Amino acid sequence: MLRQSSLNFNNFNLAKKLTILLLIIFIVGITFSGIALAKILNYKAQNEISSNAWLLFRTINSIRSYTNEEVNPELEKRLKNDEFAAQAIPSYSSRRIFEKLRNDNDAYKNYFYKEAMLNPTNPRDKADSYETTVIQNLQKDKNLKELSGYRSLDGERFYYIARPLAITDPSCLRCHSTPEAAPKNMIEKYGKENGFGWKLNVINGVQIVSIPASQVLQKAQQSFVLVMGIVTLIFAIAIYMANFWLKRYVVRPIKRVVRVAEAVSTGEMDAEFEKEANDEIGSLVEAFTRMKISLVMAIKNFERYRRGN
Q: Among 25, 60, 170, 279, which lies 20 to 30 A Cα-Cα from 178?
């Protein structure tokens, strides 16, 4: 089959061969460019979302610090020793602020934030099996400050970014050390089975931001379509111009040389080879002109010799 295709290709004229060659270059170039571009744009989309997630993490952690350093002390002055207010808990403040951010800002409406804990006070913060694995990986490598990747959640694929979460303020142990030290109304609300035994500076959870993978891919696809459209247009124009140039300055002059050569071969010695450029085609025209002159001289010499005999 390859041999037959080669034979068919050899039967084409030069213009068709050049067109086919340029089309092959076009297809191969677009294919490899598309593959490389898709990877680059996907990476860029992930970086863009990661940057937004980092900004979100910084904002949430600032809220956590503010709650812990300013709101909590003020509320403690107004609460009895056995009283508990959720507004004094950093995780509660960060969750509420994030929910408001999602509702008020379209840029974050598809983001999901969770403080997933191995042993949370509130069952809604319990880490699922995948989040537990992420926490364990962060516990094994203390130098690891972030994990990211793709996961399935409720039948949908998500891109996630996770950061380790640990208690660094001793005052937080009041609610998480032992049930006896915790406020009574907190025990009444959540029970004494969960959320205790925490230790300082020990990773026991993660802050995790999740974004539907379709959003990552959509950003990449939109950029891909736009850039590939521009690249394809540029390729198409370049190939058209190259094809036009080759036909005008290579194929057409060669055809003229062929026509004149055929005329000379049938005895039309008045036919002239026209030199239009000083390139290789011009050199070819000069060679054919010299050949014609030599042929004319040979014919004249032959005629004189024949008449002389």
A: 60
